[in-house]
Write a structure and sequence with these properties.
- The complex is a heterotetramer of chains A (410), B (291), C (247) and D (334).
- With 291 residues, chain B is an all-alpha fold.
- Chain B is built from 11 helices and 2 strands.
- In chain C, helix 3 packs parallel to helix 5.
- Chain C has a 6-stranded mixed beta sheet with strand order 6-7-8-3-9-10, sandwiched between helices.
- Chain C is globular, with a radius of gyration of 18 Å.
- Chain D has 334 residues and is mainly α.
- Chain D has one domain.
- Chain D has a two-stranded antiparallel ribbon with strand order 1-2.
- The two termini of chain D are 38 Å apart.
- Classes of the chains: A alpha/beta (410), B mainly alpha (291), C alpha/beta (247), D mainly alpha (334).
- Chains in contact: A-B, A-D, B-C, B-D, C-D.
- At the A-D interface, helix 1, strand 2, helix 3, helix 4 and helix 5 of A face helix 2, helix 5, helix 9 and helix 12 of D.
Chain lengths: 410, 291, 247, 334
């Protein structure tokens, strides 16, 4: 045992070493909070691998774009912004380690949020422990705000739940004779889609729209044929799908295969992706499908077109390929700028205090949050019309009026 | 009632595809007595091959089987030679981790090449379906089913009619015996592993057609495939087919009749019942007590 | 324990594997204090009988009486604890643990004793050491059983089954693959423990060994008893010769 | 050794290092617990994760239903959860032990899958996909990690104690016997179910305790992370193999090498999918070059050296050992 003991002591050293390596290995975070001059260092963990990685990368782009722009303008309060990214491999254990490292090892000035509510919460709690503000652009699931964290601010116009309420607003704005009489709610069992669909269901039932089907299906479900068959057999006027991306496609495909064509088809997520959605369900099939979104490249929001141009200039590609997550993370940066402009200070206390009151214009619309950082606003309604994703509601920003009922599948 | 039958049809169609995927597992288990945790990722590879060929060369996914199958065979053969052969001294313990490492490594490579977005293959006939006696039968699923059955039959013939098949069976009976019969067990093992991967390649192309996928899809797949193996009885082809159909049927039935949220649960419950009543699986042969 | 009557009685024991009838209404008995030999040409069902006796294999029909009591459903653990232990045709030791532990495992312990802090009490260890000494394995006490030569493993397995202080020991081909030095050692030990009142049932091919050691000898053929008697009678018996030379 | 670990936080280590220390110990616990069933008893199980998850949910649920502050009390709860889960594991074991070898592995995998399904779908109990929240401990940020570190260390100490006991006790001897040759063991009067259930329940208890501490530290529990059949399950076994299965300190050494490395890889070079590939590469290297693990390999080398000296003497000592070595021992039937 003794021999093992000695061997293990040498392993303890190994940990120290590994830590040392880590210290040299990461982009040197020079400044520390008590040296206000020098660059403004910001630590961000994003999922570059694992389940959330595709959107995680989009989140990173938004942050990077903002940083380059603000630095070009001479930084914040004269301090250049320096972003440090770490990968959390879509794992909560890793995300905790990362923010732990940012705050207590690299001593960054600020931290921004990761992608996905599931990781946001674990991370925000670490930040909260150290009194760091936690402004995040990609975690607006109900559980995030249910944790009642004082330091959390979601830089979006709406939470996942009330974001989808715009569909409710629209449907209930219709004259009674045009409203659907019956509705089905097939929904993915995840922290965003399901609550959103459930909230709509509650509202519609209150308004007298009969629920003929309401079920959740697990993320593993590869074939939604059975679900849609059941929905079709109830032949509802309206289908409200609490969908993410792939399962949303599967729902549409199954509807087409089973020649089931509801008068109204609203999906919480999936159709808002201008590239993947038509690619996976067929452009000709998109006509008349509704979804809600926080942002599109065409949205008439102050500063949006400038953002889109800058994005394309920096990363190339086509505006239609910009993921709304990029815009949301970009908005996080805008909020920080706003705080600096308003107060002339950029420490965490100020950020927390400032952002909890007032409302702030960002590329994703006006951000105004409650005491737990939940945005109060709503999203806007989009419909696929003539192969193009079009903003149709609320009228204030609508590009054109909604086209109903949904035409039959071609 | 109509719904029930519709569900049964969908179930059986899906079952055929699962049966094909599982047959590969069964083969490698039969010959090498190892569980190939990489079978799922092999399937996903097949899907990505079909995806690539379709999007860039506009080759129909069903035709791309002709590419994915030999390609996966090569991959399987190579992996077996370089990673599994060296550990055969302790295969029954190490192979699990080794094949799992393969799975994760391949997932990494796939993510590296294709990114981690969900992909789907959208053919012209993707969403069309035949209406037979009032039941909607999706074309892709029907074709996938028929092709799977055809390949399974082909495999069966290969294993029963050819010299390779005989040596495979010899090895699976008893390695020492096979050695006496002058069967090159290493070679047979490599071929069998390659063949197992090849079936995944074929199944994968069709999997990509019937459902969307990303590099991480293999986790769900392997979970299902393993459960199918156990319920059917490890190493039994009949069992693999039965298990696959049971899985798909129970899923689509529960989905349609009860609640999709629980769709997979009855299968696992059934799995447990089978294990209590008949630990060796439905079609499994009792592994002779080590006497 | 009832002192009269044979220690082991087998009556009309049968076992079939699929189509093949391995044991076919086999009956014989092992007298107390005897060294009974069980011989017969290959495939005559010797090992199958042994497997059924030791509870590794369920018989299709027939009965086993051990020490006058009928054993309804033999099971290896209960048989061992009941005083009947066996060795295997190809020696089976626990390869990755050391020789002493191989013996200690076999020391009968049950109930709470299992949860004790030590592997075995002093007395058990001493007994194990004496056995190792008798089997000339003392200097290998620390070695992993798997590292022993095959012959040594045979000896170790024999020693192991003695840990339970059995009344009947079934030896399955004790001399198979063992060099003469160790065969002699084995013979010595069998005689010695026999002298101490231990009963043996020995399945063996090595005729010289059997004839020199066993009495009576039971001859099996096609899964049933062909003949039983003293070594000389067996050697004279025409049936036996036919069975071996094949007709 | 444990003393060294206990003092580690005082070595001026910053909280981010202690944080990695917590996860290292967590894997050490899980690996050692797995060692009971997989290493000592020879039943390769992926079930540890299931019990880890049960432990995590156990703690979170207690918070939900019984308002036990958020100070040290939850730590006191950890052992209770461990025992509870151990009890739960017995009927599960009854099913699992109807199989052996590879089927057993698959059964344990299915167990994880089933539990994840339940966590997702028994929404009323588990909160479903949105998971459960655990209030944060009111510890000062500077020393926040240390309490969890020590909690995890205590769990590790307990696990190690159990392993040490097993290795020198009758029970452990029975476990080894089952691992080596279960049928033979039965033929030697070993009541094989005793060691099997003991190992299974022990593994469950300690894994659950680790899960409980983990849940309190992260203060969020989600189905897919608590019942992570992918990385966690295999990570545990890898840790055990890397260190050396069946050895006392092996899993700890494995965790000590693997966890910091993994956390560091993801933190620094995670930027690409290379992370996954690197992870797989570690696996493969271990399997190919250290199949018996670090500790075992080193120990063996030492042993063989001393053995060789002994052998040399014996060669002369007896003609027997000579002639007998000619007939190599055939490999055991199973």
């Amino acid at each position: 045992m003794l021999s093992t003991g000695t061997r293990l002591r040498s392993w303890i050293l190994a940990i120290g070493l590994c830590a040392g390596v880590a210290a040299c290995g990461t982009p040197a975070p020079t400044s520390s909070s008590n040296a206000p001059k020098g660059p403004l260092t910001i630590g961000i963990s994003v999922s570059l691998t694992g389940d959330f990685s595709n959107t995680g990368k989009a989140a990173q782009l938004g942050y990077q774009l903002w940083a380059s722009q603000v630095n070009a303008k001479g930084g914040i309060l004269g301090r250049q912004v320096q972003l440090t990214f770490a990968d959390d491999a879509s794992s909560p254990t890793q995300v905790v380690t990362n923010y732990q490292n940012f705050i207590s090892r690299d001593k960054v000035d600020l931290v921004f949020g990761p992608y996905s509510s599931l990781l946001t919460l674990a991370a925000a709690k670490v930040a909260n422990r150290y009194g760091y503000a936690f402004v995040e652009g990609a975690g607006n699931g109900p559980s995030v705000f249910a944790a009642h964290l004082p330091n959390l601010i979601d830089a979006g116009p709406a939470t996942a739940i009330n974001g989808a309420q715009v569909w409710g607003d629209y449907i209930l704005s219709l004259p009674a004779d045009q409203r659907p009489k019956t509705a089905a709610y097939p929904s993915l069992d995840d922290p965003f889609s399901q609550p959103a669909a459930a909230a709509l269901q509650a509202r519609f039932e209150a308004a007298g729209i009969k629920t003929v089907y309401s079920q959740t299906y697990p993320a593993e479900t590869t074939s939604l044929g059975g679900v849609i068959a059941k929905v079709a057999s109830a032949s509802p006027d309206m289908v409200v799908s609490g969908s993410q991306d792939a399962d949303g496609w599967a729902q549409v495909q199954a509807m087409i295969q089973q020649k089931f064509n509801p008068k109204f088809l609203f999906m919480t997520n999936g159709p808002e992706n201008p590239v993947d959605f038509p690619k996976n369900v067929g452009a000709q099939n998109t006509q008349g499908i509704f979804t809600s979104d926080v942002w599109t490249y065409g949205a008439p929001i102050p500063g949006n077109s400038a953002f889109v141009q800058a994005y394309v200039a920096k990363f190339g590609g086509d505006p239609s390929q910009i993921d709304s997550t990029s815009a949301q993370t970009y908005a996080v940066g805008q909020l920080i700028e706003a705080v600096a402009a308003k107060t002339g200070k950029i420490d965490n206390q100020t950020i927390i205090a400032t952002l909890h009151q007032g409302s702030y214009q960002t590329v994703v619309g006006i951000v105004s949050v409650d005491q737990y950082g939940a945005p109060k606003g709503s999203q806007f309604l989009e419909e696929w019309i003539g192969g193009k994703l079009t903003i149709v509601y609320p009228p204030s920003i609508a590009e054109q009026a909604p086209v109903i009922p949904k035409p039959t599948w071609p | 009632m109509h719904l029930l039958i519709q569900a049964i049809i969908l179930g059986i169609l899906t079952g055929g595809l699962y049966a094909l995927m599982t047959s590969g597992l069964t083969l490698t288990f039969g010959t090498m007595r190892i569980i190939n945790m990489a079978q799922g990722v092999f399937v996903v590879c097949g899907a990505y091959i079909a995806f690539t060929l379709f999007n860039y060369l506009h080759i129909d996914p069903f035709l791309s089987i002709l590419v994915s199958t030999p390609l996966l065979f090569a991959i399987g053969f190579t992996l077996q030679t370089f990673l599994l052969k060296p550990i055969r001294h302790d295969a029954h313990r190490l192979s699990l981790l080794m094949t799992w490492a393969m799975a994760i490594g391949l997932e990494g490579i796939l993510s590296f090449i294709f990114g981690t977005d969900f992909r789907g293959i959208l053919t012209s006939y993707q969403n069309s379906s035949w209406t037979i006696a009032g039941y909607e039968i999706p074309v892709v699923r029907a074709l996938a089913f028929l092709l799977s059955v055809a390949i399974l039959v082909g495999m069966f013939l290969l294993l029963t009619r050819t010299k390779f098949g005989r040596s495979v069976r010899a090895v699976s009976q008893r390695e020492s015996a096979a050695k006496l019969l002058g069967v090159n067990t290493d070679r047979t093992a490599a071929l069998a592993f390659g063949l197992g991967a090849a079936t995944a390649g074929a199944a994968g192309a069709m999997f990509g057609l019937v459902s969307s996928f990303d590099p991480a899809s293999h986790y769900d797949l392997i979970g299902r495939l393993l459960a199918i193996c156990v319920i059917g009885g490890l190493g039994s082809n009949a069992g693999a087919i039965a298990g696959a159909v049971i899985l798909a049927l129970s899923e689509s039935l529960v989905q349609a009749e009860f609640s999709p949220a629980w769709s997979s649960v009855p299968f696992y419950v059934l799995l447990i019942i089978v294990l209590i009543a008949r630990p060796r699986g439905l079609f499994g042969v009792r592994t002779r007590g080590a006497i | 324990m009832s002192a009269e009557g044979p220690l082991l009685e087998i009556d009309a024991l049968s076992k079939r594997f699929g189509g093949i009838i391995a044991v076919d209404g086999c009956s014989f008995s092992v007298a107390r204090g005897s060294i009974t030999g069980l011989i017969g040409p290959n495939g005559s069902g010797k090992t199958t009988v042994l497997n059924m006796l030791s509870g590794y294999l369920a018989s299709d029909s027939g009965s086993i009486r051990f020490d006058g009591k009928r054993v309804a459903r033999p099971d290896p653990t209960t048989m061992y604890r009941g005083g009947m232990s066996r060795t295997f045709q190809r020696a089976r030791v626990l390869p990755e643990i050391d020789v002493l532990d191989n013996l200690l495992v076999a020391a009968p312990k049950r109930g709470l004793a299992v949860w004790g802090m030590s592997k075995a009490n002093r007395a058990t260890v001493d007994y194990a050491m004496t056995l190792l000494d008798e089997f000339k394995l003392t200097r290998l006490t620390e070695a992993k059983a798997g590292e022993l030569s095959y012959g040594q493993q045979k000896l170790l397995e024999f020693a192991t089954v003695l840990m339970g202080k059995p009344r009947l020991v079934l030896l399955d081909e004790p001399t198979a693959g063992v060099n003469h030095v160790m065969v002699d050692l084995m013979t010595e030990r069998i005689r010695e423990f026999h002298a101490k009142g231990l009963t043996f049932l020995i399945v063996e091919h090595n005729m010289e060994f059997v004839m020199g050691l066993c009495d009576p000898i039971v001859v099996l053929d096609h899964g049933k008893q062909l003949f039983a008697g003293a070594p000389d009678d067996v050697q004279q018996n025409q049936l036996v010769l036919d069975a071996y030379l094949g007709d | 050794m444990l003393a060294v670990l206990a003092l580690f936080p005082f070595s001026g280590a910053e909280s981010w290092i202690v944080n990695i220390g917590i996860f290292t110990l967590m894997y050490a616990v899980l690996g050692s617990a797995w060692n009971l069933i997989g290493g000592y008893t020879g039943y390769v199980s992926l079930g540890s994760v299931a019990f880890f998850g049960l432990g995590a949910y156990g703690l979170a649920l207690t918070f939900q239903h019984i308002g036990i502050g958020s100070g040290f009390l939850p730590f006191a709860l950890v052992p209770i959860i461990g025992i509870a889960v151990a009890i739960v594991s017995l009927p599960i074991g009854w099913i699992a032990f109807r199989t052996r070898g590879l089927p057993f592995i698959i059964v344990t995998i299915s167990l994880v899958i089933i539990l994840q399904y339940m966590a997702l779908n028994l929404t009323d109990v588990t909160g479903g996909a949105p998971g459960l929240q655990v209030p944060q401990a009111p510890f000062p940020p500077g020393t926040y990690e240390e309490y969890f570190y020590w909690a995890m260390l205590v769990v590790f100490a307990l696990t190690l104690l159990a392993c040490a006991y097993v290795r020198r006790s009758r029970l452990g001897l029975m476990m080894f016997a089952v691992r080596e040759d279960e049928d033979k063991a039965r033929g030697l009067g070993v009541a094989t179910s005793v060691p099997k259930y003991a190992a299974f329940a022990g593994c469950a208890a300690f894994s659950a305790m680790a899960g409980a501490v983990w849940a309190y530290y992260l203060s969020t529990v989600y189905p897919q992370f608590a019942f992570d059949g992918e990385f966690l399950a295999m990570g545990i076994i890898l840790v055990a193999y890397l260190g050396g299965i069946g050895t006392l300190w092996g899993p700890f050494v494995g965790a000590l090498i693997l966890t910091p490395a993994q956390q560091y890889f993801a933190y620094s070079l995670g930027g690409s999918q290379l992370y996954l590939i690197a992870y797989a590469a570690v696996f493969i290297v271990v399997m190919l070059f250290l199949p018996r693990g670090v500790v075992t390999t080193i120990a063996d080398r030492a042993l063989r050296r001393s053995r060789r000296r002994k052998q040399a003497v014996e060669e002369l000592a007896t003609a027997e050992s000579e002639s007998a070595r000619d007939t190599p021992a055939p490999v055991a039937a199973r």
